[in-house]
Amino acid sequence: MDAVREAHGRLREEIVAGRPEGVRRQHALGKRTARERLALLLDEGSFVEVDLYRRHLGTGMRLSSRPHTDGVVAGSGTVDGRRVFVYAQDFTVFGGSLGEAHAAKIHKVLDLAIATGSPIIALNDSGGARIQEGVMSLHGYGGIFRRVVAASGVVPQISVVLGPCAGGAAYSPALADFTFMVRGTAQMYLTGPDVVQAVNGERVTHDELGGAAVHGERSGVAAFVCDDEESCLEEVRYLLSLLPSNNLDRAPSAGPCGATEDLRPELARIVPVEPNRPYDVRLLVEELLDDGEFLEVHRDWARNVVCAFGRVDGETVGVVGNQPSVLAGVLDIPAAEKAARFVRFCDAFNIPLVTLVDVPGFLPGTEQEYGGIIRHGAKLLYAYCEATVPRVQVIVRKAYGGAYIVMDSRSIGTDLSFAWPTNEVAVMGADGAVNVLYRRELAAAADPAALRAELVAEYAEALMHPQYAAERGLVDDVIDPAETRAAVARGLAVLRDKRGEPPRRKHGNIPL
Question: Where is each CoA carboxyltransferase C-terminal domain found (predicted)?
Answer without folding.
Answer: 260-497
